[in-house]
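Raw record, unedited: Serine--tRNA ligase
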Amino acid sequence: MIDLKLVQKNPEVLAKALADRQSNLRVEDFLILDGRRRALLAEVESLKNQRNSASAQVAAIKREGGDASHMMEELGALSDRIKALDAQTAEAKAAVEDWLMGVPNIPDASTPVGKDESENPEVLRWGTPRSFDFPIREHWELGTQLGGLDFERATRLAGSRFSLYMGWAARLDRALVNFFLDEHVKHEDYIEVCPPFMVNRATMTGTGQLPKFEEDLFKLTDWGYYLIPTAEVPLTNIHAGEVLDEADLPRAYCAATPCFRSEAGSAGKDTRGLIRLHQFTKVEMVRFAHPDDSFHQLDVMVGHARNLLEKLELPYRVIALCTGDLGFGSAKTYDLEVWLPGQNTYREISSCSNCVDFQARRADIRFKPKGGKSTYAHTLNGSGLPTGRALAAILENGQQKDGSIVLPKVLVPYMDGVEVIEPR
């Protein structure tokens, strides 16, 4: 949630941010709602002052033995009016809060301005895409022919946009999870967490999935739980309603979880393979940072995601998301895109974002500076990494002419010495 005082004092800042984001929201609508709320508050305050004054007069009249019945009637009418206005004020306040809940984060000044993903600037590239002297196949064809991926049975079991890993593919998926977690926990500063895979509405609201993106979520209607779309949701909310010590920052968590997404609005996109599924496994990174340090921490997190791709020997590029492509809760985002030779293009495999105080305001995550008052922490999140897309990239980049797959050297110990997935 953005700062209410910022919108009240500098509405033009939000107006520009919304325009840069290509948003249809109008600051004028907020000013009308907030103006009504303020007017009601002022009227209630005035009436309460009148009531207090009348109460004092009644008390004085009674002390002198006079008749205060007419004043009592006025007091009753004032109290009824105040009660009615209190209800209207609560409704006006809720309307303002509802509007603010639907407002995206204000892009950082360093975020490039652009209308959509076509205007995302490339920051860097790593690795040289391999040249092939044979027809390149896509990962779903390779995985199926090698007996590791069975989309036909997955569809029979659950429906479209599900996967079934068998044998070496299931083992490779597990190897990727273990490799990612080992890097984050043993060589970086993350605390490993095993969080709930279902959360309540307040938790989803804290990270910004609700109320705006309810159609993208899977909900257990009878229970009031939501299946998590990413471990960012429970990890960020670990400190909801808490005040951290300044010395605790930065604080970092990681978790490997299944992720569940309805993929509403994705009809016809990536209908084959592992790129866009209703359920997939992902290792997520979350960091809590001091406001003065959060953009440095974003660079740190991007470095952690890059490290994984480089150790997997997968060519990739980093792009900076422009304002028109920026996620709802983010002030600045870098996407890492891995090279998929079967598609002859780079595809997103990690998104690393600094949400500044946007999520912290919604979830009430604070820290207390030494000798100062508590203030909102900054939250960051990033993929580190999804196993399905990583597996797809490994298959496509490691494919050989005979149909075998050469695995990245770093995964061989996790695969008990297996270096090549051989054709059946």
